[in-house]
Amino acid sequence: MKAFAIAVAALLATGCGGEEPPRPAAASTTGSAAGAIGAAEGAVLYGRWCAACHGATGHGDGITASRLDPAPADLASGAARGLTDAGIDAVVAGGARGTGRAGVMPAFGNTLSPWKRRDLVTHVRTLQRAAAAAAAAAAAAAAPEGPVAPD
Ligand code: HEC
Fold first, then answer.
1. Residue 7: what pLDDT?
2. Would you state the pLDDT for residue 6?
3. 3-state helix/strand/coil string of 130-146
4. Is the domain 2-10+30-131 a CATH 1.10.760.10 member?
5. To 5 degrees, how large is the angle CA 28–CA 12–CA 129?
6. Does the beta carbon of 86 sit less than 6 angstroms from any atom of ligand 1?
7. Which atom of ligand 1 is nearest to the CA of 123?
8. Which of 42, 57, 94, 136 could form a disulfide with 122 if both were Cys (CB 3.0 to 4.6 A apart)?
9. SS3 track for 75-144
């Protein structure tokens, strides 16, 4: 988590304008330093391209959400949890029109390279894990007799 925070800080410090060099296919391997950078890039890309609609934590509550019909999907705890990585990528690349969905989900296939979309999928999975952890913590708090989480 610390490495993740450092990577985010480094990315923010260097900015995200201009052309980025291509990254090797193995760069998003989880658990590696390159994986941490890929995850951090996913967070930055999400903030730039997705959060206005889907919300910073992915619950479909971005600043534009109340004006959209249908509302942006809850990526963190909604049906998106059941999508495969390729399924999420297909929605991001093809948008609502490309995947038979309603509404204004834009197509990012021309804007975001495959590896950027892969980093976005990584970040969507991170949001889903965070939402599941928050739900589990809330359930545990509501049920004092429930199982105790290991330290
Ligand atoms: C202009 C607002 C808007 C932006 C920006 C946007 N989305 Fe969406 N997105 C939507 C809406 C609205 C839907 C719901 C479409 C529907 O239900 O028919 C959706 C649906 C989705 C779904 C399908 C979820 C499901 O449960 O089937 C995924 C995945 C998704 N968006 C990911 C993203 C990602 C990742 C980004 C950033 C690259 C992004 N979206 C940017 C509005 C947006």
1. 47
2. 52
3. HHHHHHHHHHHHHCCCC
4. yes
5. 50
6. no
7. 35
8. 42
9. CCCCHHHHCCHHHHHHHHHHHHHHCCCCCCCCCCCCCCCHHHHHHHHHHHHHHHHHHHHHHHHHHHHHCC
Check residue 11 and give its pLDDT.
43
Please tell me the distance from the alpha carbon of residue 39 to that of residue 44, in angstroms, as a whole number. 9
Dig out the tokens for 149 from the structure. 């989480």
Q: Is there an atom of ligand 1 within 6 Å of 8 CB?
A: no
Answer for the pair 124, 75: CB distance below 8 angstroms, yes or no: yes
Distance 72 CA to ligand 1 centre (A): 6
33, with CB counted inside 10 A (0-12, 13-18, 19+), is exposed
CA 142 to ligand 1 centroid distance, Å? 32
How many other C-beta atoms lie within 10 A of the C-beta of residue 66?
9
Q: Report the distance separating Cα 88 and Cα 105, nearest Å.
A: 12
- Per-block mean pLDDT, blocks of 10 residues, the chain (151 long): 49 48 54 84 98 98 96 97 98 96 94 97 97 94 73 71
Could you tell me the residue ranges of all domains in the chain?
Answer: 2-10+30-131
